[in-house]
Design a protein that fits this description.
Number of strands: 2
Strand order of the largest sheet: 1-2
Length: 173
């Protein structure tokens, strides 16, 4: 039953991502400033470190497929991306599982890299016109800022929830 809570938290964060993206669009002198929240990705990355990576991999597949089907742009982009970033987070940051500052920075940096990954794939497929200056100014910086704020809000909350749901079967060895 407690393991189902990991899925439930992910589902809530999935819908919060969509809600936040709808609430905060902004335009300045005809240019759209794009804020892309990645609460679900940040949650998956934290689960990777604080629990077994296998839990995060299963959730990454489920929510990656859900995101791909819900937004319907490129099927497999989020599924592969979530899986890749969960595996990379486990590989690079598993030694820092007690250092909360490094985990915080790692989650935030991987979230920024995930946004770059998505833009590169969309650009290579010709779905977006990629201008590096506009991408950094109107999408990357606002996205990094909003995700930093969201991470500050949810980091300790998710850590407390995961600690409360602690089962010996899904504890990191």
């Amino acid at each position: 039953m407690r393991a189902f809570c990991y899925f439930l938290i992910g589902a809530v964060l999935f819908y919060l991502d969509a809600l936040i993206a709808l609430v905060i669009p902004m335009q300045i002198s005809g240019k759209s400033i794009i804020f892309v929240p990645h609460l679900l990705l940040m949650y998956l990355l934290m689960i990777t470190i604080y629990k077994k990576p296998s839990i995060a991999v299963v959730l990454a597949i489920i929510f990656g497929l859900t995101t791909d089907l819900y937004y319907g742009t490129i099927y497999g982009l989020n599924t592969f991306g979530y899986l890749l970033f969960v595996i990379l987070m486990d590989f690079f940051f598993k030694v820092y599982y007690r250092d909360h500052t490094m985990i915080f920075l790692g989650v935030w940096i991987f979230t920024i890299i995930f946004e770059i990954y998505q833009a590169i794939i969309y650009g290579l497929l010709g779905l977006i016109r990629f201008n590096l200056g506009e991408f950094i100014l109107f999408r990357m910086l606002p996205t990094a800022f909003i995700n930093l704020l969201l991470l500050i809000i949810i980091f300790s909350l998710i850590r407390k929830i995961v600690k409360k749901l602690d089962l010996s079967i899904d504890r990191k060895a």
